[in-house]
Every structure is written in structure tokens, then in C-alpha cells.
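Contributing new complexes? Match this layout with manganese (II) ion.
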Amino acid sequence: MLVDFHAHIDLYKSPKAVIQNCNKANIYVLAVTTTPKAWVGTNNLIAKSSRIKAALGFHPELAKERLKDLELFEQFLPAARYIGEVGIDGRFDAEHIKIQINLFRYIIEKVNKAGGRVMSIHSRQAATPTLDLLQKSNGLHVLHWFSGTKLELERAINMGCWFSVGPQMFSSKRSRDLVASMPKDKILTETDGPLVQNGKNIIEPVDVASIFPELANIWGSNRKDVEAIIADNFLNLLRFAS
Ligand code: MN
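Output block (do not edit by hand):
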């Protein structure tokens, strides 16, 4: 069983072809979105794919220019079982980050009021402020492509966070060390496609299979056992989502 817990299906050049490949491979996909409007479009795209679910998102990089879409986020929230991609990105100026933090805080308040959700979280160069806000959130948090420090990782683990790891997280020793420290029962696989390359090609959800040997290597285990662990984790997470 394959799981891609963070893919931008709507951003592919031909989303329908990618969805067809997903359906053929029976892969479970969380189709994250970058704006509330994209959530509507993504739901239309995946309407006939029972293994693909759309997450209602508001990407931090778009926090400033799309702030007017905040009403839509609130409007769609009751129907959304998953939230993402949301969070904070530290690669911006102070004013932009302030807007991101206010947006993320607002989203967390609304999600709390709605009873909590499974959330796919962006925390690039901003793990500490992201965790500061998540401390007030009662959802289930999956930190996507986590790249903070060892200490920040420890804090996230103590807070009960989950982690979705992609192929690119095995390309540096620093990142591999982080993955090795993540709790085995709280790891999912992801691609972040189409924003990531797989060799010469743009990565697709089915490429999560390439993560199994990497995790097997780190855990001193084999590919089959890794696949079973990821499947178990995913089923545990679904219990929270339903
Ligand atoms: Mn992403």
C-alpha cells in the first residue's frame, strides 16, 4: 500500500493523467492546496477517486497577496476533513512573516472551534514560530518536509507531531539524521509533487515507493516491513480524521 501524504495534484500540468496513475497504483493521496479556491477545484478533479482526499489550504507564501480569500477558508472549513498546506515560511521579510503568523493563528483558532483536523504543516526556516502556534492547536499535526534543528525536532516529537518525509530528505546527512530521530510510528511518506524532481522527471505520487529502501536503510529493516509500518501509521491517522 502506497501513501503520498503531501502532493499538489492541482499544480501538475495534466492533473487528470497524474490522478489516473494514482488510481491505477491504488495509492492514497492527500491533495494539499495553496488557497481555499484551489480546494474547490481539487475536489472537482478527485471527485471519482476515493483514495485521494483534498486538504483545505492557505500556503504561507501566499498569505499576503491572497488574504482576501480568508472568508472562503472559513466558509469551506466545516466540509474539509483535512487542512493544508498551512504554516509559516521564514524566507520572507518581517512584515510578510507577521502576516503569515496572524493568518496561521487565525486558521488554528477556526480549526479548534471546528473540532480540530488533521493538518499538513509547512515550517521551512520557521520551525520554532510554527511550533509556538501549534501548541495552541488541538488538531493532529503532520510536519511536512521538516528541516528544523535537532532541538526543534525534539520539541515537535514531545508535542506529539507526525512527520511526512519525501525522497529529497535522504539526500543530506543532516536531513537523514533528522529522519532517523523521528518516531517510527508517526512517519508518513510524501512527494510534494510537482515541486520536486525525481531524476530528470517531475515527481509523481507513485514515486513514494522510492522512499521505502531509504527508510529501510535507516531503520536497519527491509522494504516490505517499511511499507507495512507506513500503512499501519496511515490507518492510525485515519482513525483521527474520521
Ligand atoms: Mn507543498
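Reviewers usually confirm one structural detail per submission. For this one: Strands lie at 3-7, 28-31, 52-56, 82-87, 118-122, 140-144, 162-165, 187-189, 197-198, 201-202.
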